[in-house]
Amino acid sequence: MADKENFKQFVKKNPQLIKHVKNGDMTWQKFYEIFDLYGEEPTAWTEYLNEKKVAQATTAAATAFGIGDLFNMLKNLDLDSIQNGVSSIQRVLGVVQDFSGNRDKASTKEEYKPRPIYKHFED
User: Fold this and answer.
1) Which three-class secondary structure state does DSSP give residue 57?
2) Which DSSP string do the residues of 71-100 spell out, in sequence order?
3) What is the structure's pLDDT at 39?
4) Using an 8 Å Cβ cutoff, are 16 and 49 in contact?
5) How far is the C-alpha of 76 from the C-alpha of 69, rounded, in Å?
């Protein structure tokens, strides 16, 4: 039981381990087994606690996206499907405008005024 409490304290000191579990890279069981075998030995935990390497890897991947990749992505777009999508959106907007436009016309109609009793058709 003491090992379990020591492991909990170790995780509280090193919250980077939580990110690895949430990402699915590791499980708590595997981390506990490493802790049980090596304890808090820094060489056993460098892969999981060294955030600088992870940050450098993500920035390198972000900068690797260049103009050539952008052109390849644009080349793979299907312009016909985009045009069909835009035209269908335009049709839907037209229907909505027609529907809302009919309400405005109905509200702008003159109110009904009954004809006076003593007045005939075009008198």
Assistant:
1) helix
2) HHHHHT--HHHHHHHHHHHHHHHHHHHHHH
3) 84
4) yes
5) 11
